[in-house]
Amino acid sequence: MEVKKHHKIILSVFSIVIIVFMIITGILLSIILVKMDSNYNSLNNKIIGLELDVHSKINTLTGSIIETQNLVSNINESFKEELGDFKTEIGGVKNEFAELKASAGEDFSGIVESAVKSVVTIKTDVSQGTGFIISEEGYIITNYHIIEDATQAGIFTYDKEMHQTYRIGINSNLDLALLKIGGTYDNLEFGDSNDVQTGEKVIAIGNPLGLEFSVSEGIVSAIHREGENNLKAYIQTDAALNPGNSGGPLINKQGKVIGINNFKIGEGESLGFALESNYIKEAINKIAMDELNKTLV
Question: Mind giving me the DSSP string for the chain?
Fold first, then answer.
């Protein structure tokens, strides 16, 4: 069937319309895609800019935090140093006050409160006596006669704790023994026995007749007294010494050990004797050098 002429015209127009529509649609799609790409690039650039800005601010904040931490650390260290100095000053003031009280003859309470914590009770299967700590590592000295015939021995510190002990060495001529217990402790310091003067006040700490950590007060009656070993190495004192005081410290008004309580004469009153501290130091250091190759005091 032959297509009529007007039908051909309609078909041609319709085809042209479709082609034009497709062209216009393609152009519009291209414009939209270009615009979307432009917007995407713009948005991406903004995101990158924001990321850089955030990173920059994070770096700045991190730097500020580090500076703040360093400042706080420096303040803490400074505070600790100042607090340590303050505590040291307070401790020094307390010690000076205790010494002043003792020097004035008021009392030895401040000295005793500090010193008694470094005194120990020694109990064996044959006797009981006293000792005292001479280094923070737990080294203790006492009289040798306290442990001489013992097969078992225990040491009781001021906190009532019992410690196993072992013998480092002895000096039988001076009646000294160096012992050791485990742990860390406050220790007593030695004074110079050459500076001891007749008439100065002293205290003795010990365990007379089993009465633990008893304190007696007296004066130095004489110095350089001769002992049974024929050495003029003993301080005579009228501070009460009884069985159980042996091995305990004789302490001056500065809280320093000037002797180790050793013996008394017979039944006489106020006739106690203590080995002078300079002899103790020399003997103990020799024992330590022989046994440990070190100096303790």
Answer: -PPPHHHHHHHHHHHHHHHHHHHHHHHHHHHHHHHHHHHHHHHHHHHHHHHHHHHHHHHHHHHHHHHHHHHHHHHHHHHHHHHHHHHHHHHHHHHHHHHHHHHTTS--HHHHHHHGGGEEEEEESS-EEEEEE-STT-EEEEEHHHHTT-S-EEEE-TTS-EEE-EEEEEETTTTEEEEE-SS------B--GGG--TT-EEEEEE-GGG-TTEEEEEEEEEEEEE-TTS-EEEEEE-S---TT-TTPEEE-TTS-EEEEEEEE-TT-TT-EEEEEHHHHHHHHHHHHHHHTSS---
